[in-house]
Write a structure and sequence with these properties.
Blueprint lengths: L3 E12 L2 E7 L2 E3 L3 E5 L6 H9 L6 E6 L2 E2 L10 E4 L11 H12 L6 H8 L15 H13 L5 E4 L8 H18 L2 E6 L2 H5 L4 E6 L2 E7 H5 L1
Parallel strand pairs: 4-9, 4-10, 7-8, 8-9
Antiparallel strand pairs: 1-2, 1-3, 1-5, 5-6, 10-11
Helix pairs in contact: 4-5
The chain binds adenosine-5'-triphosphate.
Adenosine-5'-triphosphate binds next to helix 1.
């Protein structure tokens, strides 16, 4: 069996009397593109927020890169995430948005931002303000922001949601490129299985907060 990069054990999030995530045991292999599928309200975002450290589990455990509990802090910087809409400065260009993130992260490498823009196919947008971007362009810039610091695990929550067919193709190609060229492990959520069937190597199906099944692409095809 391939090496696991991330594993959750009985991961649970309770909001009042409602269990948004209920006893989830998720397994993401190193190098996988893990498609996390579930209807709206199934618990995908809540689960991904806990994995990214944006929300605290009510119960259960997350293990990443062999670390868990308090030690998870040591590996948080190895995770990049785009959850819900990317937080962009609308009056600034893609370059300036990335520049701010790089400064906050302490990255000063020459040509780094240009390279990120190229990776997500935004290298020709110039000074255009991001408030004038299409949804697909915004999503791709969100992915670029999540890539600052070279994460080993990239978490993308519904990056394809609301995009037009052209936007879907662009985001899909960006993700494929990252997996292939950088060997990145990627967890991507969607409420449409069909959208991820061209992309994911493994799948986790969540329904009413419960992870009902995990399967490989081959198992899904069968
Ligand atoms: P969507 O794609 O619509 O965002 P999802 O699968 O990501 O769906 P979540 O956003 O994780 O679903 O929501 C799961 C459940 O938890 C929903 O019933 C939602 O109303 C509830 N929920 C999410 N966040 C909170 C919160 N902060 N307080 C209370 N309930 C919440």
């Amino acid at each position: 069996m391939s090496e696991l990069l991330l594993q959750t054990r009985n991961l649970t999030k309770q909001y009042g009397r409602h269990r948004a995530v209920d006893d989830v045991n998720m397994h993401i292999k190193k190098g996988a593109i893990y498609g996390f599928i579930g209807r709206n309200g199934a618990g995908k975002t809540t689960c991904l927020k806990m994995i990214s450290g944006l929300s605290t589990p009510s119960y259960g455990e997350i293990e990443m890169f062999g670390y868990k509990g308090k030690d998870l802090q040591k590996v948080r910087s190895r995770v990049g995430c785009l959850i819900e809409a990317p937080g962009l400065y609308g009056n600034m260009s893609a370059y300036d948005n990335l520049n701010i993130k790089c400064k906050l992260t302490g990255i000063k490498k020459k040509g780094y931002i240009e390279e990120l823009l190229k990776t997500v196919g935004l290298d020709t947008v110039g000074e255009k303000k991001t408030k004038h971007y299409s949804l697909g362009m915004k999503q791709r810039l969100g992915i670029a922001l999540a890539l600052v610091g070279e994460p080993d695990l990239l978490i993308l929550d519904e990056p394809i949601n609301g995009l037009d067919p052209q936007g879907i193709v662009e985001v899909r190609e960006t993700i494929q490129k990252l997996a292939k060229e950088r060997g990145m492990t990627i967890c991507i959520s969607s409420h449409i299985l069909e959208e991820l069937s061209k992309l994911a190597t493994d799948y986790g199906i969540i329904h009413n907060g419960c992870l009902v099944q995990e399967l490989t692409r081959e198992e899904l095809m069968r």
